[in-house]
Amino acid sequence: MGNLINEKLRLIVEERYVLALFITVFLVLDSLVFILPYYLKGYTIPVGWDTAWYIRNMRLIEEQGVYSLFIKTREINLFCILEYLFASIFNISFILTATIVPIMVGLLFPLVNFQIIKKLTKSRKLALVAMLLTIIDYNTVRMITVFYRNLFCFLLIEIAVFWVLPDFLEKPSKKRFFIFVLFFTIAGLSQLETFAIAIFMLLISLLLYLKKRLFKTAKLLLFCVLAPTLIVLSFQAPFLPIFVEKHIIFDNSGRWYHRQNLVTEPWYYLLSFGVGLTPLYIAGMYDLLKKTSKNLEKHGFLFISLWNVIAITSSFLPLLGVRVPGWRFLMLATVPPVATLGFVKLFIGKGSFTKKKALILIVLIATTLIVITVNQSRTFRPWISKDAYEKLLWISNANRNHSNIIFVLCFDYGRDTFSWAELYRNWIWAVIRTRTNVYFGDVRFLIEHQQPTYFENQFLNYTYYVFCNELEDFTLNNARIYTIDEWHKNPLNETCFVEVKPGIYHMEFG
């Protein structure tokens, strides 16, 4: 008897050792996806389009305080506060913080999906499959390189809704309720859009429980909806009118974009559903919806299936006037867990795992890897050149004790002019200082006439007017005005500029 017990204990230890080994290997692989490009391509600046915005926000807290962060970002931006605290605690630069934090958040994603599948299927092997699929999921790559605040919020909601909430509804406890409310509240104070989608999904779940007369479950779920919603809204209340205005298109006539620019392209659905993993995702969704329709009390299956349906449906909201790109909703699809269930349905649930099935699976995964690799080669890069960054550093060091700096941008990138100007402005704020005024247009109109720069191009005009409206404490008295050759169409034509360093142009206005 004793030998039998010892043998069982040995097998359990071995199984856990193998499990830990696989988890470690997958986490190492996941980290290499995002770390290797830095070494292979010699990047010294963090990758990602929104990276400058995150760095600027941390610097904004340092230079102007947390309240200014809320005013400038027009929300209670808790995530950037946490980033700032991370940089302060470990005494590292904001640039390094913007490099490390996305990778840390990205490494949590496979672990979260591991736990979701383990909870749904009671299988550690399938949970490992979910980890592997997470590493090659397009949405994971996309969010870590561009929208890692969204991913942070999404992870918290996944933990709250797919881990904690089902247990709470089955076995209510104050501890589980507190954990759910805590995670949901942090998510809502970090990124309001994803939080709003989650609340809507829970409200739909509530209606389904009421329809099936599951009143006890509905009552508990109602508390879970109300508590974090009231907390988040009480903090975000001053910014809600701005949030609503920002996300509702009242008039397209004078804007630089139109509604159709926000509608998701058909090919993007293929990317968002995992490229080669799309058949697995579709099969998994079918299986989820089938199980959910039979038994709403399988809370985990209900929440995941409903979450994906709402995420996909929300991608069409721009057609109704919601001013958020549709693909941002598609990124919230829980592809790895759903694709894992599809893997069971297609490759395990119907007979043995044959060589033909193995070949098909290899082709699907290879297709996914090829598409992601091609996409990474184009998008996984810093969106500012090293030369431009070093020029901004020089301007910053040369003006440590000078407060009135104006930076001039003037270029024509067509429809994308405003996007690039906004990107460069964020880098100016992130490197020089957050009180730097950034002007878009002909500097002679600014200095000689103090009249608007008029462009025949509507995209340049729109950029000019937005930038002028956002100038702060604007004065030419004792101003130092700068530009760099990369971000100005021809600074030498504006005779007031003097080249003080190669590619850096400067003038002083008394």
What does this structure look like?
By secondary structure, this protein is mainly α. The protein has two domains: 2-248 and 260-379, no CATH class; 386-509. Helix content is 67%, strand content 5%. The protein has 22 helices and five strands. The chain has helices spanning 2-40, 51-64, 66-73, 78-89, 94-121, 124-135, 138-145, 148-170, 174-190, 192-211, 215-236, 240-247, 266-272, 278-294, 299-314, 326-330, 335-348, 355-379, 386-398, 417-431, 443-449, 458-469; strands spanning 405-409, 437-440, 479-484, 498-501, 504-509. The chain has a five-stranded mixed beta sheet. Helix 2 (51-64) packs across helix 20, helix 8 runs antiparallel to helix 9 (174-190) and helix 14 (278-294) crosses helix 17 (335-348). It is globular and about 75 Å long.
Q: Which helices and strands appear, and what pairs or packs with what?
A:
Elements: H1 2-40, H2 51-64, H3 66-73, H4 78-89, H5 94-121, H6 124-135, H7 138-145, H8 148-170, H9 174-190, H10 192-211, H11 215-236, H12 240-247, H13 266-272, H14 278-294, H15 299-314, H16 326-330, H17 335-348, H18 355-379, H19 386-398, E1 405-409, H20 417-431, E2 437-440, H21 443-449, H22 458-469, E3 479-484, E4 498-501, E5 504-509
Parallel strand pairs: 1-2, 1-3
Antiparallel strand pairs: 3-5, 4-5
Helix pairs in contact: 1-5, 1-6, 2-3, 2-4, 2-5, 2-20, 4-5, 5-6, 5-7, 5-8, 5-17, 6-17, 7-8, 8-9, 8-11, 8-15, 9-10, 9-11, 10-11, 10-15, 14-15, 14-17
